[in-house]
Structure formats: structure tokens, C-alpha cells
Amino acid sequence: MEIVDTLRTFLENGEDWERKQTSVAGLSIIKLPKTRTRPASLALELNPVNEQGLPMKRKGVMVMSTAELEALRSLITNEKIDSLFESILEVMPEKRPARTVSDSILEI
Q1: In whole angstroms, what is the distance from residue 29 CA to residue 32 CA?
Q2: Each residue's pLDDT tens digit, 20-70
Q3: CA of 80: how far to CAs of 29, 48, 64, 83, in Å?
Q4: Which of 14, 69, 101, 108 could cross-link 31 (Cys pair, CB 3.0–4.6 Å)?
């Protein structure tokens, strides 16, 4: 089955808010329910995954149009983001180290 046929079937038969995983890690397709102003539709969800393959965020970024995708690409590749993020890291407090088992625990 071609990808277009698969997507059409998903749009027609999928449950509202159902996610369909893709072969690209961090990229899924969501079926959005119909509203009063638009029919049911599909959107891309971008949510990077960690080393274990789990989503890094609770919700990803939803992309519903070519214009949104192009704007997102342009924003992410902007060189000013790197320098701004480095500045943010400088002012953020250090993360606490992971808790370790204390030697002062009394074993019963």
C-alpha cells in the first residue's frame, strides 16, 4: 500500500488524537478531530527521542502546514539560537547530582 493510501485510511478510520508512529524516530502522525470550522485532518508531531527511544517531551511540536514546517526549519537553523542558548546555560543554576544512597542509612 502506498503511503498516501495508508494516510487516507488513517484519516478515515483512525480514532481522534490517535498517533501513528513512523520509521523516523521522533516523528509521528496525529489524527486531529473535526471541528466546526474544519474537517478531520492529519498533522506531523515532532518530538525527539532519548537514547532509550522514549520521547524527550510530554508533547511534541505539531506541524499542520508547509508554511509552519518552513518557519520551524528557518527558526531552528538560525545561528542566533546557539549563542542565546549558551547564554541561558551560563545563567541557569547547576543541576543537582543524582541522589546516591547515603552511608548513614541504618540497615535493619
Answers
A1: 10
A2: 999 999 999 999 999 999 999 999 999 999 999 899 999 999 999 999 999
A3: 30, 21, 26, 5
A4: 14
Whether the Cβ atoms of residue 32 and residue 40 lie closer than 8 Å to each other: yes
C-alpha cell, 55: 520521547
Question: Can you tell me the distance from the alpha carbon of 6 to that of 29, in angstroms, rounded to the nearest whole number?
Answer: 11
Q: Distance between CA atoms of 27 and 16, rounded to whole angstroms?
A: 18
pTM, whole model, 2 decimals? 0.74
**20, three cell numbers:** 501513528
Could you give the count of Cα atoms lying within 13 Å of 5 in the half-sphere of its Cβ?
2
Look up residue 30 and give its three cell numbers.
496525529
Q: How far is CA 13 from CA 49, 75, 96, in A?
A: 27, 34, 47
* C-alpha span between 42 and 44 (Å, rounded): 7
